[in-house]
Specification:
PPR repeats lie at residues 175-209, 210-244, 280-314, 315-349. It comes from Malus baccata. Keywords: Repeat. This is Pentacotripeptide-repeat region of PRORP domain-containing protein. The protein is mostly helical. The chain has a domain at 314-399: Serine Threonine Protein Phosphatase 5, Tetratricopeptide repeat, CATH 1.25.40. The protein contains 23 helices and no strands. α9 (140-151) packs parallel to α11 (176-189) and α15 (246-258) runs parallel beside α17. It is flat.
Length: 399
């Protein structure tokens, strides 16, 4: 944890770096909490009228089954915001702050986040700044919640002011999460060099970059086709003794596939398993795609078989990749089998891939298989357009 002096120095460094750059929105994390099946919650979930929803929620302001259920709050705010009833949102959330739960920092963090989801940024920041008024302790956790909401806006000046004034005003010591929020925001704004400079500055101030820092920066530089910096960050991370995680490996493998370096991507997937990081469906799909694009269809089949051997079930992206390249390579029998399997799960390749498969099956005098695929195509929900179905049917009927 940094001293107050160090926190101020970081904030000043961040502000200096952001000067004269254009802002953009940052993404926000969405909480996923399953609602409890209790009568009040069921009524809230079923109510569609904004005014009735407002009164129903207000009537349950002291109901612990409601106030402790994050889904209920998120759903309420989402629907009221969709109806543009921001006055209702303000009334309900401000009322919650005045109740006993308003003295818990975790609960106030939820209020801050909900205001952010509703696009009510000023209310979110005011909630953080006024926490002492309702007897709630303020730490870097609630600071980070407010900072994350602020990065969703396009007001870089407000972000500068927040970083400059708030930590000193409330004696907040920044942590690695604070820094990563700023770095992620800069990356999403496209200010990549500035984001990198933040990492350099934070090391000088004693905040050690973690795997999230490196992964965020690597992903941004690779997507911007600045692979030399992305590679440098990968090497620096290893040199510093910061072990990559699954997300980091997937970012690196995606870059290797994009550069048509399928064998290196495959070796990297092998390294993951050697250090006990289990590849996921994204990893397998990337490596399969890499071999397919490089023309090594047999290797792609082997990786696909390995996926099954590890107990994974192919998802729609893996099916799409395999079917597309099997058709391109002329292996219509295996393409037919995979296409039939995925269609029976209501996963459908794109129309161009289906058309290529139908043309290949017809050319190979396997009209029965082509008709079987067409029968499944007609069962798609939601259905293909009439024009698309007509194009596919024409393949079977033309001589």
């Amino acid at each position: 944890m940094l001293s107050l002096r160090t926190s101020r120095r970081f904030c000043n460094a961040a502000i200096a770096i952001t000067s004269n750059d254009c802002p953009a929105a940052a993404s926000n994390r969405v909480l996923n909490t399953k609602p409890l099946e209790e009568p009040a919650l069921v009524k809230l979930k079923a109510e569609r009228d904004p005014e009735k929803l407002f009164h129903l929620f207000k009537a349950n302001a002291h109901n612990r089954l409601v106030i402790e259920n994050r889904f209920a709050f998120e759903d309420m705010v989402s629907r009221l915001a969709g109806a543009h009833r921001f006055d209702y949102i303000e009334h309900l959330l401000e009322h919650q702050k005045s109740l006993p739960q308003g003295r818990r920092e975790g609960f106030i963090m939820r209020i801050i986040t909900l205001y952010g989801k509703a696009g009510m940024t000023k209310h979110a920041i005011d909630t953080f700044c006024d926490m002492h008024l309702y007897g709630c302790s303020r730490t870097v956790k609630s600071f980070n919640a407010a900072l994350k909401v602020l990065t969703q806006t396009r007001d870089l000046g407000a972000l500068e002011a927040f970083l400059s004034e708030i930590p000193e005003k409330f004696d907040i010591e920044l942590d690695i999460y604070s820094v990563n929020i700023v770095i992620k925001a800069f990356c999403e704004m496209g200010i990549l060099v500035k984001a990198y400079q933040i990492m350099v500055q934070m090391e000088k101030l004693g905040i050690k970059p973690d795997v999230i820092t490196y992964t965020t920066l690597m992903s941004a530089f690779y997507k911007d086709n600045r692979w030399e910096i992305g590679n440098g960050l990968w090497n620096l991370m290893i040199l510093k003794g910061c072990l990559p995680n699954l997300a980091t490996f997937n970012v690196r493998i995606q870059y290797l596939v994009y550069r048509r370096r399928a064998w290196e991507a495959n070796r990297l997937m092998g390294l993951m398993q050697n250090i006990e990081i289990t590849p996921d469906e994204v990893t397998y799909n990337l490596v399969i795609k890499g071999f397919c694009q490089a023309g090594y269809l047999e290797m792609a089949k082997r990786v696909y078989s390995a996926l099954h051997g590890k107990g994974y079930k192919p998802n729609v992206k893996i099916y799409q990749t395999m079917i597309h390249y099997l058709c391109k390579g002329g292996d219509f029998d295996l393409a037919y089998t995979m296409c039939k399997d995925c269609m029976q799960k209501n996963w459908f390749p794109n129309v161009d891939t289906i058309r290529t498969l139908l043309e290949g099956l017809k050319k190979a005098n396997q009209l029965g298989k082509a008709k079987a695929i067409m029968m499944l195509v007609r069962k798609r929900a939601p259905p293909f357009s009439t024009k698309q179905l007509g194009v596919l049917q024409t393949i079977l009927t033309k001589s």
